[in-house]
């Protein structure tokens, strides 16, 4: 089967859906192509589940001020981590379903489920289908980067794509990469009782470029967990654990 369109969009994440909105406004013929999981990175493994985890952690952390507010019994509150993580996944799934309900679920033949590959300039193949497009938008997204030398550490390496699928949390964890998601996850895990250390090879966090804002952010974050900046993380095996040095 072959078809001709004005625009082919590869990737149904935030960027792809935004491109689709612009193409629709221009009243162009288009197809949206996506292989793998549907739902944006933000909804599935990014800012939305991390915000849900932060809320659970914040609710638990507030027990420390209950006595000042006249609320008794706060010191006895604990968290069932498997149940808390299941709650986060439930909220995540609701948010993903909402994204899909307002996008790909309503698209009919303009949405193609599969992986696209170029066979010629302006020509894509998805399964047995050939797409001829005047313009092609590549919005295939990103994935967490795991250095080759870390792959052998296996299940000890957790990424933002996998942490929300965990049934329980480790006693201690190093967050390597202190961008927005790394900081959110680190802060939440610390408030849930996990011993957290943050590491980033840059001298700043959260992608901040303003020196004053960066210093304020670092001072604020180190109230929650220690951070090592300006150093590359090095991993070595130590029994059943991983030693992180920088």
Number of domains: 2
Name of the CATH homologous superfamily of the largest domain: FAD/NAD(P)-binding domain
How many extended strands? 11
Poorly predicted runs are: none
Number of distinct helices: 6
What general form does the structure show? elongated
Distance between the termini: 55 Å
- The overall average pLDDT, rounded, is 94
Give the strand order of the largest sheet, numbering strands 1, 2, ... along the chain: 3-2-1-6-5-4
What's the gyration radius in Å?
Answer: 22 Å
Per DSSP, what share of the residues sits in E-state strands of 2 or more residues? 15-25%
CATH class category name of the largest domain: Alpha Beta
Topology as a string of helices (H) and strands (E): EHEHHHEEEEEHEHEEE
Helix % is 25-40%
Q: If classified by CATH, what would the architecture of the largest domain be?
A: 3-Layer(bba) Sandwich
Q: Characterize the largest beta sheet: strand count, sense, and whether it forms a barrel.
A: 6 strands, mixed
What does this structure look like?
There is one protein chain. The chain has 246 residues and is α/β, with parallel strands linked by helices. It folds into 2 domains: 81 residues, 3-Layer(bba) Sandwich (FAD/NAD(P)-binding domain); 145 residues, FAD/NAD(P)-binding domain. The protein is built from 6 helices and 11 strands. The strands form 3 sheets. It has a 6-stranded mixed β-sheet, with helices on one face. The chain has a 3-stranded parallel β-sheet with strand order 7-8-9, with helices on one face. Strands 10-11 form a two-stranded antiparallel sheet. Strand 5 and strand 6 form a beta hairpin. Helix 3 runs antiparallel to helix 4 and helix 3 runs parallel beside helix 5. The chain is elongated and about 65 Å long. The N and C termini lie far apart (55 Å).
């Amino acid at each position: 089967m072959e078809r001709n369109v004005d625009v082919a969009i590869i990737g149904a994440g935030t960027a792809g859906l935004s491109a689709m909105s612009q193409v629709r406004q221009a009243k162009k013929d288009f197809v949206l192509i996506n292989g793998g999981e549907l739902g944006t990175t933000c909804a599935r493994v990014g800012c939305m589940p991390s915000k849900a985890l932060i809320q659970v952690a914040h609710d638990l952390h507030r027990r420390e001020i209950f006595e000042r507010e006249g609320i008794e019994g706060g010191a006895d509150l604990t968290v069932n981590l498997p149940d808390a993580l299941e709650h986060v996944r439930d909220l995540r799934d609701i948010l993903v379903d909402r994204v899909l309900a307002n996008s790909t679920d309503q698209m009919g033949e303009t949405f193609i489920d599969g992986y696209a590959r170029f066979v010629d300039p302006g020509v894509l193949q998805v399964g047995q289908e050939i797409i001829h497009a005047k313009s092609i938008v590549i919005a295939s997204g990103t994935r967490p980067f795991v250095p080759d030398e870390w792959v052998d550490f296996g299940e000890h390496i957790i990424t933002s794509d996998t942490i929300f699928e965990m049934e329980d949390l480790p006693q201690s964890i190093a967050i390597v990469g202190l961008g927005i998601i790394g900081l959110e996850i680190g802060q939440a895990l610390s408030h849930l009782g996990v011993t957290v250390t943050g590491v980033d090879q840059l001298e700043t966090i959260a992608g901040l470029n303003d020196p004053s804002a960066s210093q304020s952010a670092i001072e604020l974050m180190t109230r929650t967990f220690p951070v090592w900046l300006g150093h590359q993380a090095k991993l070595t095996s130590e029994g059943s654990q991983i030693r992180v040095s920088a």
